[in-house]
Amino acid sequence: MSGDDLPVIAAVDGSTHGWEALDWAAAEGLRRGLQLVIVHVRPYTGRTDAESDVREAEELLGEAVARTSRSAPGVPVSTLAPLDFPSAALTSLSRDASMVVVGSRGLGGFRALMIGSNSLATASMAHCPVVVVRTGRADGSEAGPPGPLNDVVAGVAADESSGAVLDFAFEAAACRPEARLRVVHGWTMFSSMLSGGPVLDREAASASADLALAELTAGRGESHPEVEVVREPVRGSASRTLVTASATAALTVVGRRKGGEALGLGLSPVAQTTVTHALGPVAVVPA
Hints:
287 residues; Rossmann fold; 2 domains; 39% helix; elongated
């Protein structure tokens, strides 16, 4: 199996957020022509009735397959029900996936938390992009933001570390008709100084950030001429811009450092803020 046809993995647990993640993953698999693997991780609970656990998993996965056949007919589907800790199982499976899709919270999560610990741990440690799906609903009962959600928004650093983020964002925009790609970069006079740019001239620093974004997107734009690219250098942290944009974006894409081995490790402050406060789906891409 080549890197271009690795499956989309969707994690389900029977929660509203898990069903939202499945629906998003099925639609993405349909857009990209990829297989969908639906995973229900059976956590270690100390229960002695293993047959009951397996039966419950099979029932849940059967419901998930039926739901997918209705929402995204034609998408090849398979299922897995490993016995493991959820984030550990999903991280292992991510080695052979194009992306892992999880809900923002699962069953048993505290309502006050904006993102569940398993989702955050998976996003921090996975070997492929992880999409944390939040539809803008507070509890699954209210409608999300109105109107078409066409923009793909990418938060980048103006250097080579953002290559994987831009590659994923361009691909996401290319498979969405009439989508724009908004590339957001937060800059400060201090970051300009660290990168060898202007130190005291604010206008020159802004122009330098705009030029860096143009250089980052140039080659990829030629590969995807159908995608309209909007470059947005933002003075200060990009977090506020990304969170605001996420409410009406089809997808917001941020990066993280590879090698995270604990909850949140590897997520920059911008990435962590975006993942925990976004009002729509967020993809976390290993840099």
